[in-house]
Structure formats: structure tokens, C-alpha cells
């Protein structure tokens, strides 16, 4: 009688061990795949985000007497001048 219950129990233990092994193997493969995809994404993403800053002439500054006048060549800088977002460099 004891041997009748022992055989299904051993089969069940073997099946559980096999399923645990295959699941961990599958999870490891998926994790490696996502890590490789993430590394590829970082390679492609860093090259696209590198933007070079450059200077652009948008206006001229003149001094008449005690007054300073700015002539804008491009209207895009007007809002930054009105908000006071500029820096002064003297050479």
C-alpha cells in the first residue's frame, strides 16, 4: 500500500522540480534579452540627445549718448530680452 502512494509522489516531485528549472531558465533568457535591448537603446539614444550649442547673431547693440539701443535681426529673442534672460560679457 505504501508503494502505491510513493510512485505518484515521486512523479509529482520530479514534475515540480522540472517546472521550477524551466521557469528559472526562461526568466533568465528574458532578462538577458531585455538587458541587451536596453544596452542597444542606450547606444542609440545617447547619440541622438547630444546637441551642440552655438552662438547666433540675433541683434545689434548701440549706444547713443546715455541710452543703449538694441536692434533685433530676429524676433525670436524678443521674449527673452523682455523677461531679462540674458547675460552681459565685456571684453
**Morphology:** rod-shaped
Distance between the termini: 102 Å
Largest sheet: 2 strands, antiparallel
Number of helix segments? 2
| Strand coverage percent | 5-15%
Name the structural class.
Answer: alpha+beta
User: Helicity range of the residues?
Assistant: 55-70%
Q: Can you list the strand order of the major beta sheet?
A: 1-2
**How large is the radius of gyration?**
35 Å
Overall residue-averaged pLDDT value: 86
The string of secondary-structure elements, in order, is HEEH
Structure characterization notes:
This protein has 91 residues and is an alpha+beta fold. The protein has 2 domains: 1-51; 52-86, no CATH class. The protein has helices at residues 2-49, 78-83, and strands spanning 59-64, 67-72. A two-stranded antiparallel sheet has the order 1-2. The longest helix is centred in the N-terminal third of the chain and has 48 residues, at 2-49. It is rod-shaped. Keywords: Membrane, Transmembrane, Transmembrane helix. The chain crosses the membrane at residues 6-21.
Please tag this protein with its features.
2 domains; two-stranded antiparallel ribbon; 91 residues; single chain; alpha+beta
In short:
The protein has 91 residues and is of the alpha+beta class. It is built from two helices and two strands.
Secondary-structure map:
Elements: H1 2-49, E1 59-64, E2 67-72, H2 78-83
Antiparallel strand pairs: 1-2
Amino acid at each position: 500500500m505504501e508503494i502505491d502512494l510513493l510512485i505518484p509522489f515521486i512523479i509529482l516531485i520530479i514534475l515540480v522540480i522540472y517546472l521550477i528549472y524551466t521557469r528559472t531558465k526562461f526568466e533568465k533568457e528574458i532578462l538577458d534579452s531585455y538587458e541587451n535591448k536596453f544596452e542597444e537603446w542606450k547606444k542609440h539614444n545617447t547619440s541622438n540627445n547630444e546637441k551642440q550649442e552655438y552662438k547666433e547673431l540675433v541683434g545689434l547693440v548701440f549706444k547713443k549718448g546715455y541710452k543703449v539701443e538694441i536692434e533685433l535681426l530676429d524676433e525670436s529673442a524678443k521674449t527673452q530680452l523682455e523677461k531679462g534672460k540674458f547675460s552681459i560679457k565685456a571684453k
